[in-house]
Write a structure and sequence with these properties.
CATH topology: Rossmann fold
Order of helices and strands: HHHEHEHEHEHEHEE
CATH architecture: 3-Layer(aba) Sandwich
Number of domains: 1
Number of strands: 7
Number of helices: 8
CATH superfamily: Vaccinia Virus protein VP39
Length: 221
């Protein structure tokens, strides 16, 4: 089956279940206008992410990897009244675009963009002693996915939902001889996830406008 078919089915689903409102449309347009990489989650993936988060009735959400804030808007809308979302972004320009998008969506008070290397910011979050997160979404550079997962565990409580995107890589994870650092990073993450006794986890393959990939889901035991 071709990517055209996957994209057409995605559009069919989007029109019925994942319509974008003005804030999401503006966010997508701002990402294009700001010359950010075209790697945001798709509409229906955003709706799926929102529904997953909503099931946890979250007061606190952590996102690792902001880009232009498109996924952040979907996640922040799942927060309970008075809830807070923290999203970590390495690139200042990306963070500026995301901050503007969140404000335009009316989420400026509930969603906070922190700029810096996630592997430096995550220990700071731990040291600050805030409440554990109810939902953690990992969607950043792939090489340190295993380390992001280890920090996610430290920032969790029993029942926390940890979601990691882009973990099938068009089946490249099956290549044991790969030299691709992103694929190798995902392979390390999958090994760690599969061996962890701290979570109940699985991976779901996905197809669509993003072609063939997958999402990991883990619930902290």
């Amino acid at each position: 089956m071709s990517n055209d078919i996957f994209g057409a089915v995605d559009q069919f689903i989007d029109e019925r279940f994942a319509q974008e409102d003005e804030a999401l449309l503006q966010a997508r347009q701002a990402i294009i206008a700001g010359n950010l990489p075209p790697i945001s989650i798709s509409q229906n993936q955003g709706k799926f992410l929102y529904m997953l988060a909503k099931l946890r009735n979250p007061q606190n959400i952590l996102e690792i990897g902001t880009l232009g804030g498109y996924s952040t808007i979907w996640l922040a809308r799942a927060l309970q009244p008075g809830g807070k979302l923290i999203t970590l972004e390495l690139d200042q320009h990306h963070a500026d675009v995301a901050t503007a998008n969140l404000r335009a969506a009316g989420l400026g008070d509930s969603a906070i963009v922190r700029v810096g290397n996630a592997l430096e910011e995550l220990p700071k979050l731990k040291a600050e002693g805030g409440k554990p997160f109810d939902v953690i979404f990992i969607d950043a550079d792939k090489e340190p996915y295993a380390e992001y997962f280890q920090w996610a565990l430290q920032l969790s409580h029993q029942g926390t939902l940890i979601i990691a995107d882009n973990v099938v890589r068009e089946a490249k994870i099956l290549d044991e001889d790969t030299t691709d650092p992103e694929v190798k990073g995902v392979q390390r993450f999958i090994k760690l996830l599969s061996e962890s006794k701290e979570v109940t986890a699985t991976i779901i393959q996905t197809v669509g406008s993003k072609y063939h990939d997958g999402i990991a889901l883990a619930i902290v035991n």
